[in-house]
Automatic annotation (TrEMBL):
Protein name: Methionine synthase reductase
Flavodoxin-like domain mapped to chain residues: 9-152
CDD domains: methionine_synthase_red
Annotated FAD-binding FR-type domain residues: 274-536
Length: 699
């Protein structure tokens, strides 16, 4: 089909970390084979499209960030369509399909997509294709792949037919209306030539025989002695299947090594979120005992000479590097150990077939190779299937090549989830597992995402500690496993722990830094204000805080702030404050024993603690978890929420705590209201809607 006969649709994406853009690019790439031309733009580029006059179907791919917010790139668009003066038929002419990305580990799943979808409907726009909501918790591809498969027939039905004789071999049934589309809900995509999945337009039938491997090749992947699948071995039926694998992403980056020298860019140039501040770490305290299961550290930053502002409950981001030993290891595997300090120039490859190809914003045009691998690329990122597909072309061993094809194929979806996604496998692990895989530097720049700054909750108050900002974190540990031969620490927490090691005082209670100025390290941070997770505006309103483990962090700031307000405004009325805290062992990881001081001076009215791993000799075993303690205080908790119109704050791990706390509140409301659970759930939903039940959680 010639270019002029292809039917156009508008393709918009709104991305925070690059996933929505990558999916939009996959749609753009597939469009041509189905007789369409996708006019693709970031949703922020409102000068390049106009929904008010758009006549063709619109496809939107949008992620969710923060506590259910649209990504930063969509803020201007969302603000525009939320204009209350717009008439209900403003978009009556518009046909659209929307794919939302989210993570069900978080409360407001796919809320970025839902917000846009709901508002477009309110303004009269019509679906030409059912909305898909993909869950990163279980694997985006479980919804994304079938949603894209069904898109083409939906587009053909939405657009007037221009060629009645068009080949319909590649058509699939549209995805049924559902919040989460199961793979079996869609017919398998059948191209007129299966080889088209592999074929490069400019390289003929390169690797066109890899879809149907000979048995000899399969045996190289899965010898008879290997009865169980692993990262490097497959078993039937996958090992004997013809494979549907993604099209090869077009190359678009070119790297040139420079003879000239220069300076690496400042870290602030890598951040698009706003002003960055380089601040000294003035104090580091280990809050847990050496024999605690997790190591928790408190760091204090000096922000006195900066314009950095925050409220208790806010978060901020730390710009962190990759582990230097991992960078050196990667350079070695790439055969570039001697070139780490050489300057490179990153350009767009001439003649690339990638639409709108541009140098990624997080990649400087000129810097040292080591700078890019240390500060710019997330080398720990779990490889996407498109990356695996590209790595196939860099792999010489036929058995390794076949296994990489399996891992990025439809037939190998379960293996991908088990051995790559759930095992947190990264590029280094893959290069060790598949030693004949030798990717180019340009390929890494094309496929590795931006190294994201890490977000932490503020654990202090500027009233209580002027010019200081504190935060608390556990040093994350990733144990070795079958797919990962070595243990690793978290990218940021491991770096911070190493950075402040000289500051850690043996007593772990206090620190005198006099005469130790040479030890003071600086880190770069930028603010990430929280729009809702703040103290009630009315100090007379009571509130409840639930924060086990490091989830207590923002509540230390709350209590410090409240103490200073009480000291300054003796004539104010202050509501009751409740804190529910839990940890494993009272003597090992009770992070802030000074909570007793807040209790004694009246800042904290009620302190409830529990210890999940401590043994008890009492006849009635004490409660182990915060949700158990909440149930013991059911009458009081319900009174705060229902009678006194108080606030409820939860901070910490979502999967293993926040959901259980939510369930406990439903039980408490049901019991105290003498109503069924459905009614209690409606009340909880109302509390969330009115911002009186607030969460700051992570997975």
């Amino acid at each position: 089909m010639c270019c002029e006969s292809k039917r156009r649709f508008l393709l918009l994406y709104a991305t925070q970390k690059g996933q929505a853009k990558a999916i939009a690019e996959e749609i753009w790439q597939q469009a041509g084979a189905h007789g369409f031309e996708a006019d693709m733009h970031c949703i922020s580029e409102m000068d390049k499209y106009n929904l008010e006059t758009e006549k063709d179907p619109v496809v939107i791919v949008i992620s969710t960030t923060g506590t259910g917010d649209p990504p930063d790139s969509a803020r201007k668009f969302v603000k525009k369509i939320q204009d209350k003066t717009l008439p209900p038929d403003h978009f009556a002419h518009l046909q659209y399909g929307l794919l939302g990305l989210g993570d069900s580990e978080y409360m407001f799943f796919c809320n970025g997509g839902r917000t846009v979808d709901r508002r477009l409907q309110e303004l009269g726009a019509q679906h030409f294709y059912d909305t898909g909501l993909a869950d990163d918790c279980v694997g985006l591809e479980l919804v994304v792949d079938p949603w894209i498969d069904g898109l083409w027939l939906a587009l053909k039905e939405a657009l007037p037919l221009q060629n009645e004789k068009e080949d319909m071999n590649s058509a699939v049934n549209p995805v049924s209306s559902s919040l989460s589309v199961a793979p079996h809900a869609v017919h398998e995509l059948k191209l007129s030539s299966e080889v088209q999945n592999l074929k490069l337009e400019d390289e003929g039938a390169r690797d066109s025989d890899t879809l149907s491997q000979k048995l000899d090749d399969i045996n190289l992947v899965a010898p008879a002695r290997d009865t169980k699948p692993s990262l490097v071995h497959s078993v039937p039926p996958v090992s004997q299947s013809a494979l549907n694998i993604p099209a090869l992403p077009p190359e678009y980056i070119e790297v040139e090594f420079q003879d000239s020298q220069g300076e690496n860019p400042h870290l602030s140039s890598l951040i698009s979120e706003g002003t960055t501040f380089e601040v000294p770490v003035t104090k580091a305290v280990q809050l847990t005992r050496e024999d605690a299961i997790k190591t928790a550290l408190l760091l204090e930053l000096d922000i006195a000479d900066t314009a950095f502002e925050y409220q208790p409950g806010d978060a901020f981001c730390v710009i962190c590097p990759n582990n230097i030993s991992e960078v050196e290891e990667l350079l070695h595997l790439l055969g570039l150990s001697e070139k780490g300090d050489d300057f490179i120039c990153v350009k767009i490859k001439q003649g690339t077939k990638k639409k709108g190809a541009s140098r990624p914003q997080h990649i400087p045009e000129k810097s040292t190779l080591k700078f890019i691998l240390t500060w710019c690329l997330e080398i720990r990122a779990i490889p996407k299937k498109a990356f695996l597909r590209a790595l196939v072309e860099c792999t010489s061993d036929v058995g390794e090549k076949r296994r990489l094809q399996e891992l990025c194929s439809r037939q190998g979806a379960a293996d991908y989830t088990r051995f790559i996604r759930d095992s947190n496998v990264c590029l280094l692990d893959l290069l060790h597992a598949f030693p004949s895989c030798k990717p180019s530097l340009s390929l890494l720049i094309e496929h590795l995402p931006k190294l994201q700054a890490r977000s932490y909750s503020v654990s202090s108050s500027n009233l209580y500690q002027p010019g200081r900002l504190c935060f608390v974190f556990n040093v994350v540990e990733f144990p070795a496993g079958p797919s990962r031969p070595v243990s690793r620490r978290g990218v940021c927490t491991g770096w911070l722990a190493e950075l402040v090691a000289p500051l850690l005082h043996p007593s772990k209670n206090s620190l005198d830094t006099k005469g130790e100025s040479s030890l003071i390290e600086k880190i770069s941070i930028f603010p990430r204000p929280n729009n809702a997770f703040h103290l009630p505006a009315d100090p007379s309103v009571p509130f409840i805080m639930v924060g086990p483990g490091t989830g207590i962090s923002p509540f230390i700031g709350f209590l410090q702030h409240r103490q200073k307000l009480r000291e300054k405004h003796t004539d104010w009325e202050f509501g009751e404050t409740w804190l529910f805290f839990g940890c494993r062992h009272q003597d090992r990881d009770y992070l802030f024993k000074q909570l007793q001081c807040f209790l004694e001076n009246g800042t904290l009215t009620h302190l409830k603690v529990c210890f999940s791993r401590d043994s008890s000799t009492t006849e009635v075993a004490p409660p182990k978890y915060v949700q158990d303690v909440l149930r013991l205080c059911a009458k009081e908790v319900a009174g705060v929420l229902l009678k006194e119109r108080g606030y409820f704050y939860v901070c910490g791990d979502k999967k293993h705590m926040a959901d259980d706390v939510s369930d406990a509140i439903v039980d408490i409301l049901s019991m105290e209201m003498e109503a069924d659970k459905l009614e209690a759930m409606k009340v909880l939903a109302m509390l969330r809607e009115t911002k009186r039940y607030l969460q700051d959680v992570w997975s």
